[in-house]
Specification:
The chain has 438 residues and is of the alpha/beta class. Strand 9 and strand 10 form a beta hairpin. The radius of gyration is 23 Å and the shape is globular.
Length: 438
């Protein structure tokens, strides 16, 4: 870890016995700390759910939700213990303090995304709300007969809102196809852009296949054809260094709970010019500027799109999350890629296992199936051995059905996962396969 001090290293070593680190070589751990590189054990120690008192076991379902580090838990508890208040309303001391912290959290997220200076951060409840807010807000902007392009890889949350918008506003919905490898067909995508496209909606990373899309190229092509570009970053933000100035998209959305942050908080980043065309989906509270019994006017961005009392604790907790992640540097990202490659290599050595898709870039997610065994039976066995993993269509039925009949078994990693855990998972998976042969 780049910012780890000697005293912090000693603290990690003093507390290591509290955690489940069986199978690790302690001298190697000490050497890793002294080399000032990312160490998953040190990272893991910040997550109370992995203490020796926990019964969580091996957690490999991080694409669904991640665990909370102690600094985020402390932030949430501090908000509750020191006294709550609303923001942007009352004028007493606690309300003023929280309003300042709340807006500082917004600015920290803006900086963490390296967003352009004219961009805006809108607080939402998560990726799904952000995408629905966008689809509903564009109703008065889109014109009958225009095309909406959505990639074949999408989570339902980045498909159904656009599907419904197209049906209700008489637009054409077209799907950017996925190749057998799991990559988007960008050559065909460029041809599709010639069909009067209003907007393009694409995931940064697929939650079902793990495919990492070239969002720089996608957004560049969309701009060439005057189409808005909307990127679902839910599966990317925990595993990639995001630079929205470089990406230059019109909107980027994500959820806190998939990046070691609280539930119920999400972010909609949008360029000012893009957000300006959105009609609010919700009304009331501090988004109102002036109101009479007959009409109302609304405040400027970002408040115009934030009706009602926000998730104050969630916003503060999400800012704490980004601070926490920044402390670990790019070595954390490199470590995850190494662990994903190690997992893929280990799975490929099992004859009965078929890894689904082979995209050019894969990030944090590894789907597979086992010949002759239903995915649910595999995950049931793993659960009995305290290994948490997901099976099914992963809220992405259309694309999953292109690659497998019964759904996949999805292993998804985080920075607190270890090679030792992967080895235990592989051993247990082999046991399940052997039992099926009896």
């Amino acid at each position: 870890m780049n910012t780890q001090t000697k005293s912090e290293s000693e603290k990690h070593l003093n507390h290591v016995k509290k955690y489940n680190y069986s199978g690790y070589n302690m001298p190697s751990f000490i050497r890793a700390l002294s080399m000032n590189t990312f160490n998953p054990i040190a990272f893991r120690q910040h997550f109370p759910c992995f203490s020796s008192l926990s019964t969580l076991g091996i957690y490999l379902d991080n694409a669904a939700t991640t665990q909370l580090p102690d600094v985020v838990i402390d932030t949430l508890l501090d908000y509750a213990r020191t006294g709550r208040s609303n923001v942007h309303r009352s004028s007493h001391q606690r309300a003023n303090q929280l309003t300042e912290q709340f807006e500082q959290a917004r600015e920290e997220i803006h900086q963490w995304l390296n967003a352009p200076s004219d961009g805006q951060i809108i607080w939402t409840s998560g990726t799904t709300m952000s995408l629905n807010l966008l689809a509903n807000g564009l109703r008065q902007y889109v014109q009958k007969g225009q095309t909406v392009l959505v990639s074949a890889l999408e989570h339902h949350a980045n498909l159904v809102p656009w599907q419904q918008l197209c049906q209700q506003e008489q637009l054409q919905l077209e799907i950017i196809p996925v190749t057998p490898s799991g990559d988007l067909d960008l050559q065909l995508f460029e041809k599709q852009l010639q069909n009067n496209v209003a907007l393009v909606a694409v995931a940064h990373v697929s939650n079902s296949l793990g495919s990492e899309n070239d969002i720089h190229k996608i957004c560049q092509l969309a701009r060439q054809y005057n189409a808005f570009s909307i990127i679902d970053g839910a599966q990317a933000v925990a595993h990639k260094k995001i630079n929205l100035t470089s990406v230059n998209c019109d909107a980027y959305v994500f959820s806190g709970h998939k990046m070691y942050g609280p539930n119920g908080i999400g972010v909609l980043y949008g360029s000012h010019s893009f957000l300006d065309v959105l009609t609010p989906s919700f009304y009331g509270g501090e988004m109102v500027d002036q109101v009479s019994y007959q009409q109302a006017s609304f405040r400027e961005l970002p408040f115009r799109l934030e009706a009602g009392t926000p998730n104050i604790a969630g916003a503060l907790g999400l800012a704490a999350t980004t601070d926490f992640l920044d402390q670990w540097g790019n070595g954390r990202i490199q470590y995850e890629q190494h662990l994903l490659n190690y997992t893929a290599q280990s799975l490929s050595q099992i004859e009965e296992v078929h890894i689904i898709a082979n995209p050019t870039l894969r990030c944090a997610v590894l789907p597979f199936e086992v010949e002759g065994i239903h995915p649910f039976d595999i995950t049931t066995w793993l659960n009995e051995q305290q290994i948490a993993i997901r099976c099914g269509h992963h809220c992405a039925i259309p694309v999953t059905e292109q690659f497998t009949k019964y759904g996949s078994i999805r292993l998804s990693i985080a920075s607190y996962n270890t090679q030792h855990e992967i080895d235990q998972f592989i051993t247990t998976l082999k046991q399940a396969i052997d039992i099926n042969k009896l």
